[in-house]
Amino acid sequence: MKAVRLLEVRTSVRQQDSISSQLSSLFVDAWCLHHPDVQHIVRDVGVNPPAMPDDFWVKANYTLPENRTQEMIDYLAPSDALIDEFLGADYIVLAVPMYNLSVPANFKAYIDNIVRIGCTFAFNREAFTLSGLATGKKSLLITPSAATPTPETDFCEPLCYICFSLLSHIKG
Ligand SMILES: Cc1cc2nc3c(=O)[nH]c(=O)nc-3n(C[C@H](O)[C@H](O)[C@H](O)COP(=O)(O)O)c2cc1C
Known about the structure:
With about 170 residues, the protein is an alpha/beta fold. The protein has helices at about 20-35, 55-60, 70-85, 105-115, 155-170; strands at about 5-10, 40-45, 90-95, 120-125, 130, 140.
């Protein structure tokens, strides 16, 4: 039987003193007490950020898999690995502090790596609609900030919510 997987995505650039990572750990430790067989995977993109997509990455991504060169395949491999990890998770905890009203840039790089056509969402060219391919997951967002965000100044929570709920829920 496949183990239940919990993916904890940490995004603070801080190491020892990160508030979001500490909050995330508290939650995960308590949650794992009730789910002793869970496989807990930590993806720390604050400390080890994925590469930002560049020109060749975008070309490779929009080339059909069967037409990709070996160089393209190799270039997309780190993104493929992040997507496999993401799609393999049943539960996702996102620890995302507000940085300058939005998400940390490292986390944006992670989003850009895992939100990929044909992998985590599908695009219907006739109907011009999107559908999420990452269904069946439960996720929790932990997003500390120094000040209390207002809807006018909070681009952090909506961005996380829209990206991750769309991957699982968007329909034609
Ligand atoms: C680069 C940077 C930018 C920040 N920008 C904001 C901000 O715009 N609004 C806010 O309320 N707090 C802001 N903060 C404070 C953090 O959101 C807050 O301290 C959070 O708990 C940090 O989480 P961390 O320790 O996991 O990195 C910022 C902190 C940093 C380091």
